[in-house]
Amino acid sequence: MESAYVSVEQVLDGLGDKVVDALTLMVAQVRDDMNVFRRTFPAWAADSTDRGWLNFAHDRAWAHLTRLLDDVDEVSFVDQTPTREFYVGTLFRLRVKKHDAEGEVSSYPTLSAKMFMVQAPATFDGLEEVRLVAGYRWDAELRRIGPPVISLHDGADVIWVHELDEPADPQIVSAVPIVPAGGPTPPQIVVGDAIGEKTDTVQEGRSS
Fold first, then answer.
1. Cβ(165)–Cβ(40) under 8 Å?
2. I need a surface site. Which of 23, 75, 130, 152 has the fewest CB within 10 A?
């Protein structure tokens, strides 16, 4: 029996090598960003919550993705808080999220988020839309990013989840943020030598 859903192969072919490569590079670069944060601010990293780590990862993922796909003509972005998503052509609509071991993703249950996860049938030929989730597997215990993945969902059901190959050349240049050693310098207030001294002033027309 033929499946009503697109297959992994159809999705990868439809997205094209540039987009798939960008998704894998994005994950590798976010992973490196998190490692830089841990090395540079170990105490801050230890104090960070799961939500803090995931917010950091999401912001870095979006920053890398928009840069990596900036010159791909068929890609367009939507960045309207709280929605961040991108289109490849008119067929594929994607959001970036972390996946658990079973491929499940989570979102704040807004109407928009619920509607995105449903594969709605097209009303006219040529107006089909395939909604996909790209991202990475997240190790909640270690708070670390695993391999890149892409998945297809329909409502609460995971139709399939596919693990992408790690990039051969992640194009990573690790950099340690420059932190001022002495902190900010307070402004200097210069006070003249004569301040506070009592002076005699003779005003014309007045006598003591």
1. no
2. 130
